[in-house]
UniProtKB/TrEMBL annotation:
Residues 523-613 form the Sulfatase-modifying factor enzyme-like domain. It comes from the Bacteria. It comes from Actinophytocola glycyrrhizae. SUPFAM superfamilies: C-type lectin-like. This is SUMF1/EgtB/PvdO family nonheme iron enzyme.
Length: 676
């Protein structure tokens, strides 16, 4: 049980304004850099401001909206001319799919919905079925190295190449209609250097795996070398930058990550998408439990969402209401992509006075063939039912695409319902109905939606160890059983602790609220055990192999060593198998900690982390607490796993990869026996 929290540290070393520290004000509100930009209605906007704006704020007074729309048009024309923008990359047939890539899932490669740990295989079909309540994805980012990179000298490319069968996993996603992105960690400079520069290595890796694009972690934009290598690759790779991509880079980055974009009360316009309608942005606020603001901004702009329900091992799942909203949006966006991308887009148009007074707003998308779509959002906490639009047409059939209702024919827009904190879409069609319309209406009508905005909490359950059955071997350290209050020290990372998210509804956490040393006092009960005074050695482990003929279920990275050093390159199952052979089990992290404070407890050199019997899973992420620290330490970035010798109280939450990727020269183990 958590009793107290102590924070220490520190300094803010970030120079990028998007990395400005959040400690000087309330972290639950946007930083100034996150706020929407005011676009002057009657004078030019300074390019240094306009070219990097996140969102152009809408005026509060609806009477100013026509002038605002005119200012938006002038701004875009001036920016295109000044930058000599041609948009030719968006004409490439090989990568034209980006403009309709509305929903992308950011997924830890070892997410237990995707990786079947029991059978040691990936289950793409199972993952898509288990996440289908989000409306299906158009793309998936397979996040792989962070937050475990740095446990040894492996680099980010190794953490992809070490995964058996990964190309087949990617091919299966693609066969099911999804585009697959790798992620690039430019901060990875302190591990083993690959044969080529990063740009060449990424291009080769993409060709080996047959992927479609690259997520640029912590980067707004790639440099010229990276852009050239990826765009000219076979297959060509698209680039998606994190956060606000400047106008000058929209020419060669077809997507961007719209992270922490605050909006105005009346929904504003996303600058990058307004500059180039074919440029896709993906909204996300990773620590939010209410995604209605992001969803509404995306729907009013005709852009997409990044679905990130597990942030580097921390469950931040979506509520039922927001998943229902996303499903509503995606049905409309996928059916009407041509209208969203190429139709005449008029932001904040045609909403009735009654609707605006209730916090309901509309954007209009129209084509030359007589189809007009209005996307509507409800900022309020109550459903709105009534005349939402002032538009009038002749000979028009009206449809509610989000409820699946046929609204009849007439010159005036009929009344509709826009759910609280939700969205709606009204389509007016002159002439024959589109061929896709009947199936969309049926699917919308069959989806009953949801209003429940409760956070779907998960609890990580400890995997209980098998009791030991034998007597201690060799020299041991006695741990007396009973209740204790133990300090746990750690570095606050995005991985969190045993339970819950380290940040809730917060905007971007940065030092000193990120990577700061922490201490908690935990009330625990430890068993009476004898803990081996030293780690299992290579020689001892070799004796186990010779005596039993043991072979692991997966032999990837299986390379037992020799001599008296600590046995490493063993995964958790290997360590448990050895412990069972000698009649013991692994010590829990608390048993290890108490034993480590006692006389006679020793560490082999070089120091390596120790596996413990502290395996947890919440059904999505599996992790183990490692103890002891190691002599290895990857330097140059705070994003690496903690290295170096560590006090016995220090615990490292290590997200558990599979298929042997968790075998490391930096992790060994020791055995414990219960006292009877």
């Amino acid at each position: 049980m958590r009793r107290s929290t102590i924070s220490t540290r520190t300094t803010d070393r970030h120079a990028d304004p998007d990395e400005a520290a959040t400690n000087r004000f309330d972290p639950l509100v946007p930083r100034p850099i996150d706020l929407p930009t005011t676009l002057p209605l009657d004078e030019p906007l300074e390019p240094g401001t306009g070219d990097i704006a996140k969102v152009f704020a809408a005026p509060d007074d609806p009477a100013d909206w026509p002038a605002w729309r005119a200012a938006l048009a002038r701004w875009r024309e001036e920016a295109h001319a000044r930058l000599r923008y041609d948009g030719v990359i968006y004409d490439r047939s090989a990568t034209g799919w980006t403009s309709s890539c509305y929903s992308v899932a950011l997924v830890w490669l070892w997410d237990e919905r995707l990786f079947d740990r029991e059978h040691g295989r990936f289950d793409v079909a199972g993952f898509l079925a288990r996440t289908s309540d989000h409306g299906g994805f158009d793309g998936v980012v397979l996040w792989h190295a962070y937050p475990v990179i740095g446990i040894d000298d492996r680099n980010q490319f190794d953490f992809y190449r070490d995964v058996p069968g990964l190309r087949d996993v990617i091919a299966e996603f693609q066969s099911r209609g999804l585009r697959v992105f790798l992620d690039y960690n430019p901060w990875d400079t302190g591990t083993r250097r690959p044969p080529h520069d990063d740009a060449t290595e990424l291009a080769q890796l993409a060709s080996e795996l047959g992927t479609d694009g690259m997520f640029l972690d912590t980067m707004k934009e790639g440099d010229s070398r990276l852009v050239s290598a990826l765009l000219g690759n076979d297959p060509p790779q698209v680039l998606e930058g994190e956060s606000r991509l400047p106008n000058a880079r929209i020419v060669d980055h077809q997507l961007s990550w719209a992270q922490w974009f605050a909006d105005s009360t009346a929904p504003g316009v996303q600058r990058a998408h307004w500059f180039e309608r074919r440029h896709m942005t993906h909204q996300t606020r990773r620590w939010n439990r209410d995604h209605s603001d992001e969803l509404q901004s995306a729907f009013m702009n005709g852009t997409g969402m990044l679905v990130w329900d597990t942030v580097f091992g921390v469950w931040v799942g979506w509520n039922e209401r927001d998943k229902a909203t996303l499903r509503r949006m995606l049905r409309v966006q996928r059916a009407l992509t041509t209208l969203f991308v190429h139709g005449e887009w008029t932001p904040l148009a045609d909403a009735s006075d009654e609707a605006i007074a209730a916090g309901v707003y509309a954007s209009r998308f129209a084509d030359q063939r007589g189809s007009t779509l209005w996307t509507l959002v409800n900022r309020g906490r109550a459903d709105y039912t009534g005349p939402a639009l002032t538009a009038t047409t002749g000979g028009t059939a009206w449809f509610d695409l989000t409820s699946g209702a046929r609204l009849g024919h007439g010159t005036a827009a009929p009344a509709v319902t826009v759910p609280a904190r939700g969205v709606a879409a009204v389509l007016a069609v002159e002439g024959p109905e589109p061929s896709w319309l009947a199936s969309l209406l049926a699917a919308a009508a069959a989806d009953r939606g949801a209003t429940d905005a409760t956070f779907p909490a998960r609890t990580a359950q400890r995997v209980r160890p098998r009791p030991s059955r034998g007597r201690p071997r060799g020299v041991t350290v006695r741990v007396e059983g009973g209740p204790r209050t133990l300090p746990m020290t750690y570095r606050r990372r995005e991985t969190g602790g045993y339970q819950g998210a380290p940040y809730v509804e917060e905007w971007k956490p940065l030092p000193p609220r990120l990577h700061d040393p922490r201490q908690e006092l935990l009330d625990v009960t430890v068993a009476a055990v004898e803990v081996a005074a030293h780690e299992v050695t290579n020689a001892e482990f070799a004796g186990f192999l010779a005596a039993t003929g043991y072979r692991p279920t997966c032999e990837n990275r299986w390379s037992p060593g020799t001599g008296d050093g600590a046995a490493t390159m063993v995964d958790l199952a290997d360590a448990r198998a050895y412990a069972e052979w000698v009649g013991g089990r692994l010590p829990t992290e608390f048993e290890w900690q108490v034993a480590a404070e006692a006389p006679g407890f020793t560490r082999a050199t070089p120091l390596v982390w120790n596996w413990t019997e502290s395996e947890h899973t919440d059904g999505i992420t599996r992790f183990v607490m490692l103890k002891g620290g190691s002599d290895h330490e990857s330097t140059g970035s705070d994003w690496y796993v903690d290295g170096g010798p560590r006090d016995p109280s220090f615990s490292l939450k290590f997200l558990l990869p599979g298929l042997g990727v968790d075998r490391s020269p930096g992790i060994g183990f020791r055995v414990a026996w219960e006292v009877r």
